[in-house]
Write a structure and sequence with these properties.
It is built from 5 helices and 2 strands; from the N terminus they run βαβαααα. The protein is mainly alpha-helical.
Length: 139
């Protein structure tokens, strides 16, 4: 088992960064967007499980972390992804609003609040159509 590390960023912060780059960035420049929040994938999964234990406890009383299963890594799996967001912060004044903790909790709450959409995905109803436009809503 390896400990893959990723830099985590809440989706709305990423969208705000893209908007800032489009509106005020210099054409042809490269801006790295990152959350300054490196965590292993396993730490993220365990944190999601803790949120679920608090927000949506299992009926049988068991902890969600009991469902974690380990699989073999794919060949060539990168152990760490990291970016330096100093340029976008310095030149464009962008920085994340959400912390790792608040962003992940908001994400878990979104999925809990949209179980109908999640159920549709599990049933195969979601066909990768564009979301967020009000079109193609999963019943």
């Amino acid at each position: 088992m390896t400990a893959e590390v990723r830099d985590w960023l809440y989706v709305d912060d990423h969208c705000r960064a893209l908007r800032r780059v489009m509106e005020t960035g210099r054409p042809g420049e490269v801006y790295h967007v990152a959350g300054h929040s490196e965590h292993t994938n396993l730490d993220v999964v365990r944190t999601v499980c803790r949120h679920l234990d608090r927000l949506a406890p299992r009926r049988d009383g068991r902890l969600h972390a009991g469902a974690i299963a380990f699989v073999a890594d794919r060949p060539g799996h990168d152990r760490r992804y990291a970016l330096d967001a100093g340029k976008v912060e310095r030149d464009l004044g962008w920085c994340p609003v959400e912390t790792f903790a608040t962003g992940l909790e908001r994400t878990v709450r979104w999925y809990l609040d949209h179980r109908d959409w999640c159920d549709g995905v599990m049933r195969g109803v979601y066909q990768r159509e564009r979301l967020g436009t009000g079109e193609g809503r999963v019943p």
